[in-house]
Amino acid sequence: MDIKAKADAGQMSANKPPQLSLVVPTYNEAGNVVVLVEKLDAVLVDIDWEITFVDDNSPDGTADVVKELGQSKPNVHCIKRIGRRGLSSACIEGMASSTAPIVAVMDGDLQHDETVLPKMFEMVSAGKDLVLASRFYGGQTAEEGLSKFREMGSNVANWIANLITGAKISDPMTGFFMLKRERFEQVVPKLSSEGFKILLDIIATARNMGKPLDIGEVGFKFRARHDGESKMSPLVAAQFLGLALSKIMGGLLPVSFILFAAVGAVGVVVHLATLTFAAERMAFNFTNAQLLATLVAMISNFHLNNILTYANQRLRGFKYWQGMLSFIAVCAFPAIANVSISTFIYEQNSLFYLAAIAGIIISMVFNYAMTRIFTWRVK
């Protein structure tokens, strides 16, 4: 039977319950959808499978391409998300939408080699809880799909991830993996919907729950992107570090709070620098210098939180300025306490910087909780 005939036979079995559900998170991948499905048709001829593209309302019409393809291929599905974004949450939503006993995640840019999927399926079917496709296993390298700088960064991230998970695997940062649905259902209530590294979260969460995963690996050649642009950015690196810290602490603090606190730390520097400048160069008294420093730090914190902590709810255009006013308004109440308490400490002890820092710490938790509700409206 030739490839076309096998593909047709696989398509004819689409009415059967799927054995394997593939989840592909997408943002601006319209040029890759049809090619990816064609490649999957060719390699998954002996498996009843379905694929769900979870699209974050791509402006290039990715969801429309998927829906049109689904008209002729009933095993191709689309979840178009409006008003919410993020790779991890997309993967969770896609896996949760399926009833297949085995689920897999892969990228939509064709950098992941689909020919290893049957081997991965065989290993999970034989008993492995999770099988990851590694860019570095069995002598493989990622030089075709990664620059030297990105490969070096990936190696550092892999080292950190292995420390967190306690699993000695070659590529814990891969976005290409397959696992039993029952194991996904066990960990999903404790997974973070924030960030980009869902595999790290799954492995670390299972370990923290006292149910470590039996993990297998297969090597694959990491290819160059077929179409579109890479989503890798300093934002991804920052969110990875936030997730890493959250998992080190057993998930006690959410990723968003850790990133909010990191922005707050930058805000401390901005605050103290402004305070010093206003007091020493502009001859402000302490109270007025503290007021100015607080306002400048709030504006700085809003901007950084908008592009880092709440990247998935990022405010743009008019909503950006509306959000800034909301942020300042919400933070005004603890800011008043900040200035009052720090002024009192300064007047009692003349401890200039200690007084300022004390006021900052007092307002941080309140600001996080309130701006999450009123500025970025996280549900």
Write the layout of secondary structure elements.
Blueprint: H1 3-12, E1 20-26, H2 33-43, E2 49-55, H3 62-72, E3 76-80, H4 87-96, E4 102-105, H5 117-125, E5 130-134, H6 148-165, E6 177-180, H7 181-187, H8 198-208, E7 215-219, H9 234-248, H10 255-280, H11 286-307, H12 318-349, H13 352-374
Parallel strand pairs: 1-2, 1-4, 2-3, 5-7
Antiparallel strand pairs: 4-6, 5-6
Structural notes for this entry:
This protein is of the alpha/beta class and 379 residues long. 54% of the residues lie in helices and 10% in strands. It is built from 13 helices and seven strands. The protein has helices at residues 3-12, 33-43, 62-72, 87-96, 117-125, 148-165, 181-187, 198-208, 234-248, 255-280, 286-307, 318-349, 352-374; strands spanning 20-26, 49-55, 76-80, 102-105, 130-134, 177-180, 215-219. A seven-stranded mixed sheet has the order 3-2-1-4-6-5-7. β2 (49-55), α3 and β3 (76-80) form a beta-alpha-beta unit. α6 (148-165) packs parallel to α9 (234-248), α11 (286-307) runs antiparallel to α12 and α12 (318-349) packs antiparallel against α13. The radius of gyration is 24 Å and the shape is elongated. Residues 3-7 have low confidence and may be disordered.
